[in-house]
Amino acid sequence: MDEFFTRINQYREQINHKLAAVSNKTTPESFYAPVHYVMSAGGKRIRPILVLLSCEAVGGRAEQSLNAALAIEILHNFTLVHDDIMDHDDMRRGRQTVHEKWDEATAILVGDGLVGLAYSYLLKTNSAQIKDICDIFTSGIIELCEGQALDKEFENRFDIDLSRYMEMIEKKTAILLMTASEIGAIIGGADSNQRRILVEFSRQLGNAFQIQDDLIDIELTSGKTYGSDIKQKKKTYLFVHALNNASAAMRDSLIHIYHQNTITTDDIAIVLDIFEKSGTLTEARRVVDAGIKQAHAELMKLPTTTARSDLADMLDWILKRKS
Amino acid sequence: MDEFFTRINQYREQINHKLAAVSNKTTPESFYAPVHYVMSAGGKRIRPILVLLSCEAVGGRAEQSLNAALAIEILHNFTLVHDDIMDHDDMRRGRQTVHEKWDEATAILVGDGLVGLAYSYLLKTNSAQIKDICDIFTSGIIELCEGQALDKEFENRFDIDLSRYMEMIEKKTAILLMTASEIGAIIGGADSNQRRILVEFSRQLGNAFQIQDDLIDIELTSGKTYGSDIKQKKKTYLFVHALNNASAAMRDSLIHIYHQNTITTDDIAIVLDIFEKSGTLTEARRVVDAGIKQAHAELMKLPTTTARSDLADMLDWILKRKS
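Above: the input entities. Below: the structure tokens describing the complete assembly.
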């Protein structure tokens, strides 16, 4: 695992170095100052690293996919800037969000510009399959928008079908990981089978990660504030699963609590009890474990390489099984 | 001219027919309902028609460039949806803007999705030069963002350099026409010279159109409300030119008036008088005429075709010399 961290830290530094110079322009300042602000904010850089490792896992050199990796990370940051406006979030990575530090018009414009910059990096990729690569990237954007729309629709609803909810988290969280893997795989020269394997790996990774994140909120006492999702009445996997699987009485109780203006510590305890009794926690843990197992199984279908081992370590790292 | 209108009406109908079915999806409804609303709003469809005519003018068939034409129009609509939020505009083409009819979050998301849809149409283009085409389209997006940023920066400033202002209108207005022409030309098989000619044609067309629009606001008594730009204290070409060319006393007077909360009919008369005395109106008319002449001259360098004649008629039509 140490070697894994050494390698991905090197990748991350390389990515951060490139992103700090995402454009050589500084004017118009009202556009480029926030662009540089966003792109120098740091982050785990999971998505671009996934591009590089996917490329290597099928026999390519990471270097070949570097521009595409940067494109994916720029695109990810576009979604963060616009989602922060939509969700009225003031802080991100310990700093003010763009619409807070500047204003909403600036944040809208900067997000738009990041999409353009993302494509400009993607198009630097030297590949005979550049059209395919652009197609996948473009589908990714459309699905991200669909995912965000579904998420917003669910905010005010209590009749959420679990499969529709899973569709939402796949589009909101997994799709960009899947796009990252698929593009990395193409650049690395993957055959159609390897390409499918890496997409499936990322789908499982993304979906497991999202549900794991919901579980961490109620399982850990350190880090994230305990039960903060419930306090914010978020439509998590746990909530939606319980809605669909709890008894009628428990369901009514859940809906009643989520209609209140404020959620007390007692309410949180009641909700957790329902999550327990409806089998939600057991099922959530089962789904996360099944996802991790499936993701690992996909990797095992690839040739034995350092990159494959790194992808396996990445899975464990992201899913917080190791640190 | 009748034949010109017959032909472009046919093109427009074909474009509208395709745009009415911009996506075959209807869910998530909160995303696709406004997408369809925007794309069925009509409009002159100048940009996509420019793609088709540019393609034909260099020997291509309009049909080859239809998907790219749709891409350009979808991209144009993305800018309208986001600009309307930034500019707090409630109405567009006689209907509520997206953020008014739905809400801001929806309008942000729909604009984002339109960028994705625009690329998805562009990528349907069957051309060996698809990478070039995507490069030009992508540069267009970045420049549009720069133009919008400059425009916003100018809103609160009075030290606006005229050449910087011209850069802004070129990026805000002309760039998408230039992008349309260049992509149409490439698809039609243009050589590098023809490509440059058509880009230059559209640059002249776009810049002349923008300044003409400013002149119409103070010259016509029908249609647009007389002097409405002054009433709204818009930083038009006329205002910026006068700022740069009027006497110190007139300049102070202009700045004084544009600092007032409300602009009276008397103020409008004073501003117009300054536009007249500073030579601004004469210069604006000269620049428009020079642009039209230059655009015509560019066209004359192309082979004699129906499309070339249509482009010449389009120039006259857009610049309201004929109707």
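Note for the figure: The mean pLDDT of chain B is 95.
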